[in-house]
Amino acid sequence: MSLTVYRSAHFNAAHRLFREDWSDAKNKEIFGKCSNPHYHGHNYELEVGITGAVDDETGFLIDLKILKNIIKEEVENPLDHKNLNVEVADFKDLNPTVENIAVVIWNRLRKRIGAEYDVSVKLFETPRNFVVYTG
Amino acid sequence: MSLTVYRSAHFNAAHRLFREDWSDAKNKEIFGKCSNPHYHGHNYELEVGITGAVDDETGFLIDLKILKNIIKEEVENPLDHKNLNVEVADFKDLNPTVENIAVVIWNRLRKRIGAEYDVSVKLFETPRNFVVYTG
Amino acid sequence: MSLTVYRSAHFNAAHRLFREDWSDAKNKEIFGKCSNPHYHGHNYELEVGITGAVDDETGFLIDLKILKNIIKEEVENPLDHKNLNVEVADFKDLNPTVENIAVVIWNRLRKRIGAEYDVSVKLFETPRNFVVYTG
Amino acid sequence: MSLTVYRSAHFNAAHRLFREDWSDAKNKEIFGKCSNPHYHGHNYELEVGITGAVDDETGFLIDLKILKNIIKEEVENPLDHKNLNVEVADFKDLNPTVENIAVVIWNRLRKRIGAEYDVSVKLFETPRNFVVYTG
Amino acid sequence: MSLTVYRSAHFNAAHRLFREDWSDAKNKEIFGKCSNPHYHGHNYELEVGITGAVDDETGFLIDLKILKNIIKEEVENPLDHKNLNVEVADFKDLNPTVENIAVVIWNRLRKRIGAEYDVSVKLFETPRNFVVYTG
Amino acid sequence: MSLTVYRSAHFNAAHRLFREDWSDAKNKEIFGKCSNPHYHGHNYELEVGITGAVDDETGFLIDLKILKNIIKEEVENPLDHKNLNVEVADFKDLNPTVENIAVVIWNRLRKRIGAEYDVSVKLFETPRNFVVYTG
């Protein structure tokens, strides 16, 4: 019997889409207004899914208090109210597209969640634009 | 050609997380304020997914009027405005975590839906905490 | 220049609609399944509105960190994961309808918010059933 | 590394569920009020999912400006503010159930999206009734 | 003490914006694609607000079971799955804009709700376009 | 007969809460992490309300195509994907709190909307924190 538990979280951040090794013109051409050098930002809404077996004794798949703390430590603390390009080491050499942010979050969570679980990340950059990454 | 049709439903219920064979202290330690002996409650929002082939003649995968009635009989009638621990036999010896409630609902629906269909259940305990069970 | 700032919060609780001075039959007749003696429950979603003047210096109407703490102390701590009928003194002699819960919350907040502000409360008992109280 | 990007869109349309080769009585019996000869309508909300590899250089799975244009050309332009039965050739001999509309949209998008991607379509006929089609 | 209770409802309908006394060209110029002679449609989401005094005995402002029935009789039965222009007498000589539909609904409800209450209607034609009418 | 029509829009922007005439320590003390010198950002969701009389001939309160264009020119074009502190003249000497952004938007719209209408602005900085300004 396998089931997935989801927990929501959110963080607000500034970013720009940008490659240092590209000219300004090329950044503008490929990334458009998302490449604004003065940054723009989003309310990122996150749904973390943990798939595994339900514990017969507790009826829990995972203790959500523990999951909530892991999300706080690995996602909210390092990303909330931050400039992703400037202040978050994961994006030093990585363009902070919503795709790459989801992968960074998944990698951060994956190493904190037991191997008996699968991990998925759904990340909304806006209510109209979002990604799912399952590793 | 395989497709999934989803139908939403909802019910309000009281519950507590609790094991009779544990001490009060252990229930409190593991389940925290969800173990309040006087109960608390939720608006459970449910999405039932039915996967199968679309009928060439009607263009329906399943008649939603029939599905709606099955959900009413198997979920809304037995669970809505109920105390899950006290009044619902399925939870007599089963802790009513959102995981276990989803499995109970899936089992109830599975036996009413034809074998040519797969069944999935997404159950929101709150807008921020939900599970998916696919059997 | 007058403006309203809103802050959301939420709590989960059990309740029943019930008057002790009525017969069981009358409680059943007037309150229907909401009168279930074993209780049912809801995810209450709350929007608190504070109306007043924007401070020229800060650009804040009210410091939301302070408002958040007041809501925590006056609403979330006393009501979350509680049985409203049994555990909350405000409802000792008051039927916990969504109307009365909104008035109780408004009264609790009103006495903590400065007289230079107006206070409003929007309380969702379900996504389909909610009230607004402005005092 | 495989990931899915989702983009939302919407269109409003009239339709009726109806088979020309059935009697009025049979249409009424099977499709109920959805068979009203004068039509009714919906706000269809669409989520298009594109699954594939993230481009190392851009950090994009697919350029969303391009995807947005494809959705505009293949879905919004032909379906928005239209009568699906009368004005959209895809439904000349196909009953416009939400199942069939999703398949039509998927087929239209599939032929415009590169073979290195998988395509999925989630289509809401109402907030309470929706389908997912993945080909 | 005055409070407002809200109850949600919904209906799906086809319509076109159109004045019979205007030329096709003028209808097209003023109403654009909303004037499509073959109709289009919407999921109308309705919030009915009733303002008044809370009854000391019941804690109810109004019995929601009664309000629900009035909405069913005055709004859902006559408008759901209908073509507003063709099948609903209220729009025989009245253009079914969202403004006019809200006024029609308000008038229908107003005559069924006691004079001790105020009535308001919020009507969503789409999630992005809606009106409020308070008489 | 007076009615309000609402139209939604949205923009993404970076900002920081900050007064140039305050020390860094005081900015930090009053505005907390919202004062991050590297900026953070939000998806701002906007609802513009226009109150007035419904035109008997068209059934429109205001032509929404015109309103949509005004919102595009006065809000989306100047604010979307911008750094409010650095790139938007309105905030040169004005702290871009959600309160002040709402007032700026209202002033911009007010001067473009005819005097026969009232204007209101509801602005969400996050789904949990929003303001209403009516002038």
Would you give an account of this structure?
The structure is a homohexamer of 135-residue chains. With 135 residues, chain A is α+β, with helices and mostly antiparallel strands. The first copy, chain A, has a single domain, classed as 6-pyruvoyl tetrahydropterin synthase/QueD (Tetrahydropterin Synthase, Chain A). In chain A, 30% of the residues lie in helices and 31% in strands. The first copy, chain A, is built from 4 helices and 5 strands; from the N terminus they run βαβαβααββ. Chain A has helices at 24-31, 64-79, 84-87, 98-110, and strands at residues 3-15, 40-52, 82-83, 118-126, 129-133. In chain A, strands 3-1-2-4-5 form a 5-stranded mixed sheet. In chain A, a hairpin with a 2-residue loop joins strand 4 (118-126) and strand 5 (129-133). Chain A starts with a strand and ends with a strand. The mean pLDDT of chain A is 97. At the A-D interface, helix 4 and strand 5 of A face strand 1 of D. Strand 1 (3-15) of chain B pairs antiparallel with strand 5 of chain D, so a sheet runs across the interface.
What is the fold's blueprint, element by element?
The structure is a homohexamer of 135-residue chains.
Chain A: E1 3-15, H1 24-31, E2 40-52, H2 64-79, E3 82-83, H3 84-87, H4 98-110, E4 118-126, E5 129-133
Parallel strand pairs in A: 1-3
Antiparallel strand pairs in A: 1-2, 2-4, 4-5
Helix content of chain A: 25-40%
Number of strands of chain A: 5
Number of domains of chain A: 1
Spell the H/E element sequence of chain A: EHEHEHHEE
What best-fitting shape of chain A do the alpha-carbon axes yield? Answer: elongated
